[in-house]
Structures
1.
Amino acid sequence: MNFHKKPVTHVGEVGLKVVNLLKMKKFYENVIGFEVISEEEDKVSLGVGSEVLVELEVVEGLTQKQGRYAGLYHFAILLPSRESLGKMLVHLHQQGIQLGSADHLVSEALYLSDPEGNGIEIYQDRKPELWNWSNDEVSMAVDPIDAQGLVDEAQKSSEPWNGLPAETVIGHIHLHMSNLDEAKDFYVNGLGLAVVSSLGGQAIFLADQKYHHHIGMNVWNGVGIPALPEKEAGLHYYTLVMENENRNKIAKNLRSIGTEIVHRDDYWEVKDPSGNSVRLCV
């Protein structure tokens, strides 16, 4: 099962509102390893091959995020192998990047922030047959990572780190929400995703087709926090890629729960109850 290709509904691209486009572009190119796919005066599209995965856009009058808002906790870049994660670990260490890390049982993950404070996870999945499911929920944890094992994997290869591998995708997105019940209603009854894990009323994880999660959400910034203001840097949008037939069904469900859908040329746009912009793409 490829959890990041249709017919599975999955996150395709993340758009960020940024203050310093040049600084952010350099970070995502040199530190993370994206290629520039297209570039305008106020916008840079980055990705792998011809696939755009992250879009940086300068918005006039934008300021750095000051308070606690709904929006991005982190977006997650999924690498194709343990070896590629090991190479990334060595590369980030050589760059002097401050890192967090965790073994989530389903995956091994590194955590860092970009120069404007947006959270990034870089991870590799263990084989799905090794994931432990019970009552339709998958077991996940926050255990120490085997950093030496990852470095050993990297050193088996004669090829050094050379940017992101061709099979890299956006694995998932994790969001700060203002109300978990409202968010769950929107994502389950509206977007048709299933809850695959929950964390004591503090966080839930949702997915399509039994992935460990395409979307995570939490209230760790506080219940009732406001939406990210239009003129503050941070998450601009993210895309959910799906089959056309599924999008039509989802649109019907969203209208039934009172969600407004804006039809654009390339996507349909909705806002979740916490104000996060979701672009529905086929």
Note: DSSP finds five helices and 18 strands in the chain.
2.
Amino acid sequence: MAKYLKYVTFGILGILLLSLPSTLPVIKSFCPYSIFNTDWNGCSKFAKMIHDRGEVVPLISPYDSYNIKNGVLFIISPDIHYSSKDVEKIKTFLENGGTVIIADDFGYGNDILEGLNISPKISKRRAEDLFYYKNYSLIETYRIEDFDGKITFNIPSYISSNNGEIRTSSISKKILMKKVKYANGKVVIISDPDVFINAMETYNKNFWDVFLNNLDGYVYYIDEVHHSKFSPYDIGVVYVQSNLSNNTKFIIFSLIVIGIFIINNIDFSRIIKFKRKTSLEKIAEENNIDINELNRVISKIKEGKNYNDLR
């Protein structure tokens, strides 16, 4: 009875181990506008939508450490200055046909525009309009190219240009988004990074979808290195619960018990002996020796007999 109880115990332990939740390490950040930030001011939901369309490559170290090829580069609310090397890397990216999205209001997005000699700039002054949603901080615009919906901006700046793809009402006439061709690529300037944060998903999810569909690229680079509060060492843990059905648990339990029973009851010594016997028969056959005589000699050797005793 104790023998069979051992098999049942192993089976139960196996099921418990399979049912326990497992942990997976993930990068977690509380940095505003980071794709690793799942709070209201992060861009994790937008990043997930990007991931559904292609490969997401976060840039968490200087640009020189990456081989940035053709694709789409997202720069969302940078608060660290761009060096001349950074701008040169972006310039090469554009010359190779890449697309650069600069979503910024009061940060350092203009470093890139100035370095590329692009005349429209982000004004770093607040855009105001008579038409807003709930309060004057949330500006709505319906004047959008290739999109019949609306976009909600949260305390945006505006672009110093006379024309653009997205603007406020005809009263204030502020440009909120503008596309600029550059070499073989293009730069898209959006004067409000909040358009892409998690808190604005309710308002702008449809725009995200249309905007991404109009981008030409499969690899999407996300600039994290120009976020001063971002740290790649903020590691979190996500728990993955195993959901095994009762039928699956019973099958696994039965297989574990049967497997342990078979292994425990196999006489490995007989298998080894059989292999040894087969080997002796082969030796006897190859050397024209009587197998019974060969076994007799081996037995005598095991008993410690000398040469004369073997004869």
Note: The chain has a mean pLDDT of 79.
3.
Amino acid sequence: MSEISLDTVKHIAHLARIEIQDEDKAQAMQKELDEIVVYAKQLEEVDLASTDPMFHALDLNNVLREDEIETPISQEDALKNAKSTQDGQFKVPKML
């Protein structure tokens, strides 16, 4: 017996904004959704009692460097390669 009814398939299709006009397509989608439900039930049977939860597949470490006080770049050095400047700032075209 099917876990998913045709009415449920049509409701899911409506929520997903998928238009299903053909009854055969609805039945095909019903079969696919049933297979997904069966697979999910198989996953529920896996014994995870001795498995620690994971937040990521790989161990991640913070790769940021230590904060160090440095001399900032001067305004002149920051602007020396700019194509156009005005009043000590980068001049760019209007973007509207």
Note: DSSP finds three helices and two strands in the chain.
4.
Amino acid sequence: MSKPSPINPLRLGLIGFGCVGQGLYDILQKLPEPGFVVQRIAVKNPSKLRPLPAERFEFHADDLVNDPELDLLVEVIDDPNEAFRLVSQALQLGRKVATANKAMVARHLPELLDLQREFGGALLYEASVCGSIPVIRTLDSYFGQEPLHSVSGIFNGSSNYVLTGMTTAGVDYATVLAEAQAQGFAETDPSLDMAAFDPRSKAVILAAHAYGVLLNPDEVLNLGIESISSADIRFAAERGQKIKVVASLLRLPAGGATVFVTPQFVDADSPLYHVEREFNGVVVDAAFAGQHFWRGRGAGGHPTGSAVLSDLVALRNGFRYAYPKLTETTAATSVAPDLELEVYVRHAPKELRQALQLTDIGDALSAPGFSYDYVVGYTRLSTLLQHRDALRAAGVFVARTGKVRSVTAEPKPELITAELVAE
């Protein structure tokens, strides 16, 4: 398709007019020659006040999906189930779609790929991961042939904002979370961000492009910061570290990859150490190109809207993801292989400490009566996944130290003796 002139721009159907939808609309109004015009806008709530005249909005998104006069569709609504219904319907019509819905893409990527192959449509979703950082297309194209040792990063600005407040200002979790909500950096229900469901979706999406693996999000470990305390922040600071919620994608020696998202102690020499507030950061360790680091705003109307715009330009130019590493042998893999992670565990009831089967205990702190406040040791990734919900329900805080090793034999849990306890 030849590039249209500004006199004859491509017509957009915009489904959703929240933060991202308004951000994209505003960007298109400010660009002198965008090559796009928002022809129709569909929203859910007729009574909500919006910054455009009421006649600009309609309330049946299916009408936009089925409108042959629209050249491109943009889906930026919150509901992942409704987003999948609309996007899958559009792809069955062979349409070109840009979306920012990371939960929808992560959960339904295999089906979305099948629909594109069968009906010839195209779906791009750069805006679904890390806002303004162009990570998906870079992994898919630039690193499409190169083996990657790891991809890791801070993929959620809301939890990072909270951790920054706790670390730099000494504010407690509840207070800085309320501040983040007041400033629009965290939702009224913060569980998607604080419990690491949001960065888990983003990590699952990146796994398809970095390693060619299609994962079920429910089978990927995610532990968040809902139970973090000032004691954990001090523990890290005394060791010259900060706590960050880090998503890790690791290449496995036998092929494929594994993915997990947890709080992690980050050293001062890591580029992630300096990623603060609502910013995101991505570190790629490539076999030949070495380490790359990208930092940018991970959320917000304009940063995410700019990512949507980049997808619209790419769709206009006929671009579609290649998924060069996706093959029949890599499409599915174990997300909890025989790996052990060194973890810091605080406030764990006795039965959960025993269930984690910690080995090689390197540090522990006891309160009077030997009720251990924290312990540092190794546990299997699969064990953490198995007990993830119980740990969350019990208010246990778990953070990785960053050390990972292969399991070579059946673990033999070590007893925490008085010699290992720092009174």
Note: The two ends are 71 Å apart (CA to CA).
